[in-house]
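Tokens as discussed.
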């Protein structure tokens, strides 16, 4: 398993305490992403090496992640992971605030799925919130530092307010929980979902489905079984329960847990321009093909199914505006059924030459 640890302002003390109390033999790899001054060398690697017997290394391009090692992001870099190999890129100048923690956590969730763990410690801003949501959505576990010990609490508070934190603890307790998770007999650690919740657990699963249907009105009986088992196993892990029967009893006596499991099942994760490569393909391949064969007076309707809170619909509209450029003033936009779970946009020629900024106001 891989643990991504994000920290910012005031984070050195929190990270130091966390590493100090981590067992040295968890079998996990720990990756620290901290907001660093891009123009100054970091001494964080040397500081942490004094607190643990694990090897502490500043990351270099192409470094392979090993268990029981701590890896520290270098200054002026953006980091991702693929096939247990850490990839570095020079930090790009962007109009907004850099979000290196989100960037790494999202790549970790994509690469490692439910074998990912996210930790957000002291820091200013909201970096880490989207990354933690991705980890949780893939079945991983998430931690945030509590208010009492965080020197700056806006980062952990943001993640907590977004509903994507499983544990809110001081760094020392986070270290102990990570040690506990590492010792669990679950195949969770090896990525096999079936181990603790097997076909023999059908009566217990049936009880959970009944409770969900009674509370939410949604029948998950024919939902994808591997997803269901992964989400239930994640909830068992959060509540320190070893057997499915124990979880059933817990659910029966805790109404809030039914709602939490329901939200886990839905995996509601969205953001603007999520999977940026898809939007690049829209602008370079899909939109040119559509516009090439479209008659000037023909309506173009774009559907975005299951678009959650709407960011995908707006992202598609913005991508099309960017593709059209100056031609956007010749197109009239209309958003249809804005409250529908299957949102859509309608576009057709605007002979009266409306200005592009007016089109933007219509869709945004």
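Sequence:
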């Amino acid at each position: 398993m891989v643990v991504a640890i994000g920290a910012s302002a005031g984070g050195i003390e929190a990270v130091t305490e966390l590493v100090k109390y981590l067992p040295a033999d968890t079998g996990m790899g720990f990756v620290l992403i901290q907001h660093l001054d891009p123009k100054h060398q970091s001494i964080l690697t040397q500081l942490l090496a004094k607190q643990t017997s694990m090897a502490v290394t500043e990351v270099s391009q192409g470094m392979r992640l090993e268990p029981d090692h701590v890896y520290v992001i270098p200054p002026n870099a953006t980091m991702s992971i693929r096939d247990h190999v850490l990839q570095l890129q020079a930090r790009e100048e962007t109009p907004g605030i850099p979000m290196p923690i989100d960037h790494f956590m999202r790549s970790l969730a994509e690469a490692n799925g439910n074998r990912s763990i996210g930790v957000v410690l002291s820091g200013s801003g909201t970096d880490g919130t989207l990354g933690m949501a991705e980890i949780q959505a893939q079945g991983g576990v998430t931690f945030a530092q509590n208010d009492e010990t965080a020197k700056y609490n806006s980062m952990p508070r943001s993640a907590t307010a977004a509903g994507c934190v499983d544990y809110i603890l001081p760094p020392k307790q986070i270290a102990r929980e990570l040690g506990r998770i590492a010792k669990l007999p679950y195949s969770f650690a090896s990525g096999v979902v079936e181990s603790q919740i097997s076909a023999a657990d059908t009566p217990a699963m049936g009880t959970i489905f009944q409770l969900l249907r009674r509370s939410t009105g949604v029948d998950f009986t024919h939902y994808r079984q591997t997803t269901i088992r992964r989400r239930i196993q994640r909830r068992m892990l959060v509540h320190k329960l070893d057997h499915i029967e124990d979880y059933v009893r817990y659910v029966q006596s805790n109404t809030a847990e039914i709602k939490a499991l329901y939200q886990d099942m839905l995996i509601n994760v969205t953001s603007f321009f999520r999977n940026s490569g898809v939007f690049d393909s829209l602008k370079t391949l899909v939109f040119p093909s559509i516009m090439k064969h479209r008659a000037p007076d023909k309506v173009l309707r774009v559907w975005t199914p299951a678009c959650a809170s709407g960011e995908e619909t707006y992202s598609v509209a913005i991508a099309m505006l960017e593709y059209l450029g100056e031609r956007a003033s010749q197109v009239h936009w209309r958003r249809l059924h804005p409250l529908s779970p299957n949102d859509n946009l309608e576009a057709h020629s605007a002979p009266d030459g409306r200005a592009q900024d007016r089109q933007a106001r219509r869709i945004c």
